[in-house]
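Severity: low
Component: inverse-folding endpoint
Summary: output formatting inconsistent between runs
Steps to reproduce: submit the following structure tokens with default settings.
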């Protein structure tokens, strides 16, 4: 399953690195981390529900 926030973060990170934009690269990294956290929270919720 594609995680939109992580995918968006990866694209921003790669583009930022390619064009030398440190701010865009950092935003991409932050989006990837946020996507990972959201995924972990979702997994925890599912585990608590017994899915």
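Observed output (run 2 of 3):
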């Amino acid at each position: 399953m594609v995680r939109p926030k992580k995918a968006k973060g990866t694209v921003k990170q790669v583009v930022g690195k390619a064009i030398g934009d440190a701010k865009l690269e950092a935003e991409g990294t932050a989006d990837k981390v946020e996507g990972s956290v959201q995924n972990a929270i979702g997994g925890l919720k599912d585990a608590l529900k017994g899915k």
